[in-house]
């Protein structure tokens, strides 16, 4: 199983009513949640760990996980509210306003951490769940105790959400030092003051740098592989990076490379098909509104 550890929330997406009024529509989302959904839809053994509410929105999230073949048995439930994220779009790019105080996800503590079953082969972390305490520290603790499991991190940094920059930076760097795979954007690297080469030196086996329309650069100690982006008509970019993460992990699973040892021993050519699957899956997501990752049947043969 690939266990996605982090936030689930309700995206309040902008829409216009039939009367032309501006409104918001609630849609299940969250960066890590989206990755779990995409993994399940791609046919990989997907699991989700994060605080889920028993409220109306929490039931929506739980139902969406089940519908996309994601096992959420390890996710603790509470009666705290669900995190809300109001989304605005500028030229197809999303900006967010989060409402996260005292929520089921944010208030996750060490007491909620499960004993990981032996079938959990990989852990994925990222998103806003790594910002706000106590949940952020709980995920950091789970990452530190990953043992020999494969760890992938996508920081997906949102500076406007950071309240204690020093603690957040320290937490991120500790987790990145444990990561086997890092997916990172130009903006993330600028904020962190790092480069793919520096992340490799810090311990990562594979760094995936997203370059928008130019594609994905896969960097390891053995060199660099550029996978071009697929040309599609972009509706919006919500969930694109999350879907790429899922496609990459699903591709590693398909290729029998879902382990620390396998990824660290692999040549870039061996990893290329997984990177291409991530790019293909993300291309489908950006071609339609919202975070709506493809099902395996939509990208058969890739």
TrEMBL record:
Q: Which UniProt keywords apply?
A: ATP-binding, Kinase, Nucleotide-binding, Transferase
Q: Which residues form the Carbohydrate kinase PfkB domain?
A: 2-296
For this protein, the record's PROSITE patterns field holds: PFKB_KINASES_2
**InterPro entries linked to this entry:** Carboh/pur_kinase_PfkB_CS (IPR002173), PfkB_Carbo_kinase (IPR050306), PfkB_dom (IPR011611), Ribokinase-like (IPR029056)
Q: Name one Pfam family in it.
A: PfkB
Q: Tell me, what is one Gene Ontology molecular-function annotation carried by this entry?
A: ATP binding
The protein's matches in PANTHER family, at most eight in alphabetical order, are given as: HEXOKINASE FAMILY MEMBER, PSEUDOURIDINE KINASE-RELATED
Entry similarity comment: Belongs to the carbohydrate kinase PfkB family.
Q: Tell me the protein's name.
A: Fructokinase
């Amino acid at each position: 199983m690939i266990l996605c550890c982090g936030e689930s929330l309700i995206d309040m997406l902008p829409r216009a009513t039939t009367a032309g009024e501006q409104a918001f529509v609630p849609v299940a989302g969250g960066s890590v949640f989206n990755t779990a959904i995409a993994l399940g839809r791609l046919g990989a053994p997907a699991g989700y760990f994060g605080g889920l509410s028993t409220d109306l929105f929490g039931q929506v999230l739980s139902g969406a996980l089940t519908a996309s073949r994601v096992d959420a048995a390890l996710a603790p439930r509470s009666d705290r509210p669900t995190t809300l994220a109001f989304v605005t779009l500028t030229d197809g790019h999303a900006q967010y306003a989060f409402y996260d105080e005292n929520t089921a996800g944010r208030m996750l503590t060490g007491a909620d951490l499960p004993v990981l079953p032996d079938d959990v082969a990989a852990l994925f972390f990222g998103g806003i769940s790594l910002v706000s305490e106590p949940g952020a520290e709980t995920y950091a603790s789970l990452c530190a105790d990953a043992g020999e499991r494969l760890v992938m991190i996508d920081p997906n940094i949102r500076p406007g959400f950071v309240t204690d920059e020093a603690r957040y930076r320290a937490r991120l760097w500790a987790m990145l030092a444990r990561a086997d795979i890092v997916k990172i954007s130009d903006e993330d690297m600028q904020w962190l003051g790092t480069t793919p080469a520096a992340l490799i030196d810090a311990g990562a086996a594979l760094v995936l740098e997203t370059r928008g329309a130019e594609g994905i650069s896969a960097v390891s100690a053995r060199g660099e592989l550029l996978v071009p982006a697929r040309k599609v008509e972009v509706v919006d970019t919500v969930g694109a990076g999350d879907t790429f993460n899922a496609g990459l992990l699903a591709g590693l699973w398909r290729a029998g490379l879902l382990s620390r040892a396998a990824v660290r021993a692999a040549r870039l050519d061996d990893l290329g098909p997984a990177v291409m699957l991530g790019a293909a899956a993300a291309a489908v997501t950006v071609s339609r509104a919202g975070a709506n990752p493809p099902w395996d049947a939509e990208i058969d043969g890739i």
